Fold this sequence. Notes:
Number of helices of chain A: 15
Shape of chain B: elongated
Helix content of chain B: 25-40%
Structural class of chain A: alpha/beta
Strand content of chain B: under 5%
Oligomer: heterodimer
Radius of gyration of chain B: 18 Å
Structural class of chain B: mainly alpha
Helix content of chain A: 25-40%
Distance between the termini of chain B: 26 Å
Strand order of the largest sheet of chain A: 1-3-2-6-8-7-12-13-11-9-10
Largest sheet of chain B: none
Order of helices and strands of chain A: HHHEHEHEEEHEHEEHEHEHHHEHHEEH
Order of helices and strands of chain B: HH
Strand content of chain A: 5-15%
Number of strands of chain A: 13
Shape of chain A: globular
Radius of gyration of chain A: 20 Å
Amino acid sequence: MTDAELCFLDIATLGKLYRQRAVSPVEATRAALNRIHELDGKLNAFITVLDEPAMEQARQAEAELRRGEDRGPLHGVPISLKDLFDTAGIRTTCASRIRRDFVPEQSAAVAVRLEEAGAVLLGKCNLLEFAYGIVHPDYGQCNNPWDVTRTSGGSSSGSAASVAAGMGWASLGTDTGGSIRIPASYCGVVGLKPTYGRVSKRGAFPLSWSLDHVGPITRTVEDAAIVLQAIAGYDPLDPSSANEPVPDYRAMLNEAVSGLRLGVLEQHSGDDLHPGVADVTRAAIAELEKAGMHVQPVHLPSLAQADAALLFAVMPEATVIHQEWLRTRPEDYAEATREQLEQGALIPAVDYVRVQQYRRRLLNEFLEAFREVDVLVNPTVAWEALAEDPTVAAGQGAAEARRTGPHDLVGLPAISVPCGLGKDSLPLGLQIAGPPMSEALILQVARAYEKRSDWKGLIL
Amino acid sequence: MRGSVTPELAQVMARLAGFEFTLERCAKIAPGVTWLMTQAEQLDGPWLMGEEPFTGWHNPLPLSHPSKPIS
Lengths: 460, 71
């Protein structure tokens, strides 16, 4: 097996080979690190690469597995983290000048959970500055592995690019308006935004308290289920954490979807889609119909205001989070990040409150729709990867998040799964969304689609 | 119509929110704020009256909640 073949195995297969002693965690980690050093000069997916610490973790995992101390499916699996998750003793920059030298004393809750699951941390991934829509010039854009003249998408750009390019088996991202699902769509990988509260946010630098979500980016749906299993669950130290039982996310994964009801969001199937996107989406929905799902249109009366609502929720919260640095170190932000933060200071309080009323209205419309259908589908983004990331507070930025943002506003789970190539031969994503705590269901539907699709991913 | 936000108005709005931005900075951000205000108009008006603010997916109000406007 070549290094490239090894690096594109799915997690379950890699784990099986570990336990057969056909491949070792040390070999897999070395292969992944080699790929990072070979490819990242063009991609810029990593801010910090942890060569020796990763090899040490891999040696430990290998020894534990040989002793029969098996921590489960992530044991010895090389992964990465978006560089806004605190990692004790490891620099956590948020791709900013302000946090360039910040070394946390404690790790984020999800980093601890992955470590306890035996995962090997390869490094910390590039992102848009503080996950807020703009590339900081000190770090530069994370380029798309499918076309290095395009962006990998924001804000979890390095996470999606690294997974797509075989530089690790999974990564964690954060999603406030689409920052897991948008780069997953652009890079042709799977991105899962869980229900608000499903995964602890403790130790993840916030962009917007009421909208931030933590979730996995992987190459397959089963891999997403494996990673979610490791990170999901109640965290009493995170006030937003939901004290709900965690199901076995792989138990239902290969169950038939026949008889399930598939709602197609009418308002997200329309005019703003770039050429080719509607056709690819229709073909994907047709595959799910062939699998026995009942397709019906869904209309959410208040969805049209979601673009505006997202802006008026994110912007003031982000400004409050950054207010001290905005006063004391404004010149250290990228110019466009600074402008967005300054603009957020000017959002009237009444608009922020109206958005909270709107979110209630939209949530009730979603819940009403989920009485009629089991899941909702639509394209993840209306287009293929752009040359660079649009700013949040501009028409294109709002439009980029049009199909992902509503699920952040109401806190409901959604997954993006690759569904084909657009007119520029770049990946497109199909978004599958469900009611609260329905991650097992949307993973099941995503897996049903994945099995029927001829998606090959990227082999570099 | 909320109208356009001039740099001077942006500076006053920032001050009322507790921020001191120079007029030069406000000249940079004012066009964006004007655009944002046009977006905010979508949420103006009485259509959300009576709606309770969102406090999370785990706490949805029943559709017949008395705080909803009577149509």
